[in-house]
Specification:
- The chain is mainly alpha-helical.
- Helices cover 45% and strands 7% of the residues.
- It has helices at 2-43, 87-92, 94-100, 125-150, 155-165, 167-175, 229-232, and strands at residues 50-52, 71-75, 78-82, 199-200, 207-208.
- The strands form two sheets. Strands 1-2-3 form a three-stranded antiparallel sheet, with no helix packed on it.
- Helix 4 (125-150) packs parallel to helix 6 (167-175) and helix 5 packs antiparallel against helix 6 (167-175).
- The longest helix is centred in the N-terminal third of the chain and has 42 residues, at 2-43.
- It is elongated, with a radius of gyration of 45 Å.
Length: 233
């Protein structure tokens, strides 16, 4: 009786071993299939258009020559030829490869993650601050030079004072005392001459200088419109 029970237990143990082995093998096969499916999905990213690579192109990542079996991604109008095995590597660092396609030192930079239809994302903060500084420097440099000239000071050094010191340089030029008396013309400026219409003679109709006292033809006396330069001196 005891011998029969022992034989029965041995048979049950032997029958359970294959089922456990088959269950483990099935689980392992499921994991491998799932991983291969995910790998295939990552190899061809759906968010970018994919076209076949052309003969003579080189991989953007490794630099190896490509064949028609490889692919090329089109990202914002730029073509990135890739080996199929290098697609995952490219996607992990696509911002780096995308920025390498841009012109060096360009003022307007295009970002990879910019919204669709936006060609440029704007001016970088560094370029914006530099441009703002240069604009302010030119404005205050010009104001400083003009103010210095009206005060009889040297305009060129004053321009550079306002250019480099901006508003502080302009305030410094404003606070300096003037070397020109009020009403006088500063050195370096030329007075714009005033012109007047000629005087027509009431007797002969001849046109005369607006400062003439007599007609140059009939010698009749005229009423001058202004004082001549000779009389001023």
């Amino acid at each position: 009786m005891l011998g029969e029970v022992a034989r029965t237990r041995g048979m049950l143990k032997k029958s359970k071993r294959p089922s456990g082995l088959f269950g483990f093998s099935g689980l392992l096969l499921t994991v491998l299939l799932t991983g291969s499916i995910f790998a295939e999905e990552e190899t061809t990213p759906p968010q970018y258009p994919t076209v076949p690579a052309q003969t003579g192109e080189y991989c953007t990542v490794c630099g190896a020559p490509l064949t028609e079996k490889d692919i090329a991604l089109i990202i914002k109008g730029r073509r990135f030829p890739l080996e199929k095995s290098m697609v995952d590597t490219f996607m992990r660092s696509r911002e780096q490869y995308f920025s390498a396609k841009q012109m060096r030192g360009a003022l307007f930079q295009e970002e990879l993650n910019a919204p669709a239809g936006v060609a440029q994302s704007g001016v970088s903060l560094t370029y914006f601050l530099i441009g703002l500084y240069i604009l302010a420097a030119l404005i205050f440099g010009g104001l400083s030079g003009y103010t210095a000239l009206s005060k009889g000071l040297q305009p060129i050094p004053s321009f550079f004072i306002g250019f480099f010191l901006s508003v502080l340089g302009y305030v410094y030029i404003l606070t300096r005392s003037s070397l020109v008396a009020k009403g006088d013309i500063p050195s370096g400026l030329v007075k714009v001459p005033i012109t007047s219409s000629p005087i027509a003679c009431s007797q002969c109709g001849n046109t005369n200088h607006p400062a003439a006292h007599y007609c140059s033809i009939c010698k009749i006396k005229l009423e001058p419109m202004l004082q001549s330069e000779v009389e001023r001196t």
